[in-house]
Amino acid sequence: MPPKLHKVFDPEFLSFRxxxxxxxxxxxxxxxxxxxxxxxxDSRLLNMINRDGNTMxxxxxxxEQAHVADFLLKAKADLSxxxxxxxxxxxYATKDSLRTPIARVVLSACDYVIPPAFDGPMWQLCxxxxxxxxxxxxxxxxxxxxxxxxDFAVASKTSEYKSxxxxxxxxxxxxxxxxxxxxxSDFAYLERDAILTGALEIPADYRFVYxxxxxxxxPFAWAMRKVWAEDLEARFIAASNGGNTMGVMALLRARASPxxxxxxxxxxxxHASQVGDPHVxxxxxxxxxxxxxxxxxxxxxxxxxAVSGQEDAVRLLLKAQADLGLKSFKGxxxxxxxxxxxxxxxxxxxxxxxxxxxxAGIFQFHRWWDEISEAMVKMxxxxxxxxxxxxxLRLQPQAPVVASCTYxxxxxxxx
Length: 415
Prior knowledge:
Layout: H1 11-14, H2 22-29, H3 32-41, H4 56-62, H5 66-74, H6 89-93, H7 101-108, E1 112-114, H8 123-135, E2 140-142, H9 160-175, E3 179-182, H10 187-196, E4 207-211, E5 216-219, H11 220-241, H12 245-253, H13 268-275, H14 278-286, H15 301-307, H16 311-319, H17 334-341, H18 344-359, H19 369-386, H20 399-413
Parallel strand pairs: 1-2, 1-3, 3-4
Antiparallel strand pairs: 4-5
Helix pairs in contact: 2-3, 2-4, 4-5, 5-7, 10-12, 11-12, 11-13, 12-14, 13-14, 13-15, 14-16, 15-16, 15-17, 16-18, 17-19, 18-19, 18-20, 19-20
């Protein structure tokens, strides 16, 4: 990068050069009156390039002549011209800070902030979008201006760099004329690239969506109503059922309801509980999914998780105050199903939660003591009988877990 006043920008040096027009010298010196007169006489001077590759705009910006740059930009000076240093007006305007007067003038003349075309299934379509925008002479700022995109994957950690990057991105989106432009209206872009590029960190009012085939830009709210609304719930259910953590996160941020249901009344949380992905379950619970909702058979998310043997799901749902006493429409509780299926591991988790809450002074499990202890005794009996050929005095290898939980249940009953 050249120094702040490299000789190719220095008005004193330029005044001795015979190839520099009066209009370019006036732009470098900040003489707005002379610039206006020259352009009125010959509008072709606006984007004329000297031997260094500099235009009037580049000379004005490099010399921080904000008032001249503002006039030239309103006159439709070309922002994309690069000089021999491979730098354009945006590079010079922001080389010291995004918040200098010259930076604000140049940034506010741009239409949108845009991400790169991300590697993956949407790359080709996004690359077409970038080419279209360039051909249509849409003034854009690339997010590369503020540095490499941080990791926005589900399990990524917050860092000082990530926080600062988001802060700068928000500033750019508020400074340009419109906001942030997502490069495709395809659902696959919304479910993946919109997360990875940081697009969903931007408030919805400052998000815009590009339709590649039509070469049109629409507000994000329009895309939600006209493009995504019809299939949003179905895509959300599919993402929850498939353990697609990124898709679930993206669609939640795009205002998908955490309580979306399929045709059978099975909610996204029920689907996630059956699959057991802890990331998806946490996101849905934190987004306000109803933990104790039931489907048309009366099955709750907790019952589905327990019957499916999904230990992580059972733990998370118990922590989220899942109701152990909910009954299906045929009158069966979770404990009835657990006993029937023989899920000792699930019953053990229920007992562990019982013990933790008792230690914390919470006694919501007391009303289920009889049912829990009955289930533990029944499982212990079944286990003993099925392995009696090994020993009449020894249980199977999993028995210590059963025995400890049975002891817990019985000891609590006689306190």
